[in-house]
Amino acid sequence: MSRLSRQIPRSDDESGRVVVEPRTVAAVSTETVYASKTLANFLSLVFARPAPSVVDLGPVIGSNITFLGERVGCKIHIEDLYADIDRHVRQGEADQLPEFLSGRLALPDASVDAVLGWDVFDYLAPAAAGVLAAELVRILRPGGVLLGFFGARASDDPRYTKYFIEDETHLRYRFYPSSCVRRWVLQNRDINIMFAGLELFDSVLLKSGVREILFRKRELS
Amino acid sequence: MHEELASIGKSIVINGELSGSEDLTIEGRVDGKIELRDHVLTVGSNGKIKAQVSAKAIVVLGHVQGNLTATEKVDIKDSGSVEGDIVAPRVAIADGSHFRGSIDMQKKDGPAAADRPLGGFKAESSKKADTQKSETPKPEPSPVNGEFIRV
């Protein structure tokens, strides 16, 4: 058993998902733990790099900070793009997202080792998604990695997902309300074109239809 | 023996440099620089800080705009908000808090990452790579297992 494994209360259901049992009376909604097939590869690649820095495009999650900071040894940049997207949608300024995203990440070229993109691209129109992808390629160092989740179907359910790293192979999903819906479904071809500066390292199609895709920026020759 | 805690009340506004050798709670507003080298700084729920802060430990229940450096721990409670970079060996961030910036928990005198023993993060695909003495993990083609397809 891996020294990093943690005991988490759960029970397997028929669909292969692992449902977390409520830990306290205060737990108001069921959270679900899913096995991630690419997270371990992502962490291994990050862990192997000296003094790695990671950009997390999701909201700050204390346990992820602890995991990435204390156990993987990363410097972590929190850039909550979901909050930015939500604000633009609420204010009726979604069409300004491409321009906003082009200057959103105030990080130098080739300055980070990894990006946790989660499912942010599912909430972006193609123009904005293309701008963000180019920005992420720009900030990645050669050999750096990017992990993204891409949904298989659109949804009318206005919610985002917080991804809690339970251990190196499991993510706990917690949903929270949003102003916009998961509207955009990218095909594999579109994703590959969008990340043309990166090479595909690992791609997994989950039973849920979600594609976990791990990209890696080519090393300098 | 009763020890009085130093505090800055919510009507107090300080512009400039603040330093001390005892624990301090700030409920007011401080703009500038705060240094409590061996002590704990608590930014109360009414506190508004726009400053570079260094202390042994920093607890945030209010608002901080500026970089935080702690030799022991930074603790952002659920009502806390921080915009700035954190350097501390331990960082706790509660659900519901707001944070924007970077967090560096690396021990400056610790071993470089490259010197750390690998083996903590074993991807399914890296196990085979290890046995082959490969330097980086490579994903092996996986058959359908009912749960996922590696494509």
Summary keywords:
heterodimer; A: 221 residues; alpha/beta; Rossmann fold; 6-stranded mixed sheet; 5-stranded antiparallel sheet; 6 helices; 11 strands; 31% strand; disordered N terminus; B: 151 residues; mainly beta; 48% strand
What does this structure look like?
The complex is a heterodimer of chains A (221) and B (151). Chain A is of the alpha/beta class and 221 residues long. Chain A has one domain (10-217): Vaccinia Virus protein VP39 (Rossmann fold). Helices cover 25% and strands 31% of the residues of chain A. In chain A, the strands form two sheets. In chain A, strands 5-4-6-7-11-10 form a six-stranded mixed sheet. Chain A is globular and about 45 Å long. Chain B is globular and about 60 Å long. Chain B folds into two domains: 6-104, no CATH class; 119-151, no CATH class. Chain B contains one helix and twelve strands. The model of chain B is unreliable at 110-115 and 124-146 (pLDDT under 50). Chain B is mainly beta and 151 residues long. Chain B has a six-stranded parallel β-barrel with strand order 5-6-8-11-9-7. Classes of the chains: A alpha/beta (221), B mainly beta (151). The interface between A and B is large, with 44 and 37 residues.
* Average residue-wise pLDDT of chain A: 86
Distance between the termini of chain A: 38 Å
Low-confidence stretches of chain A: 1-28
- Which series of helices and strands of chain A comes N to C? EEEHEHEHHEHEEEHEE
How many strands, what sense, and barrel or not for the largest sheet of chain A?
6 strands, mixed
Summing up helix and strand content along with how strands pair, one would put the structural category of chain B as: mainly beta
* Separation of the first and last Cα atoms of chain B: 68 Å
Structural class of chain A: alpha/beta
Order of helices and strands of chain B: EEEEEEEEEEEHE
Beta-strand share of residues of chain A: 25-35%
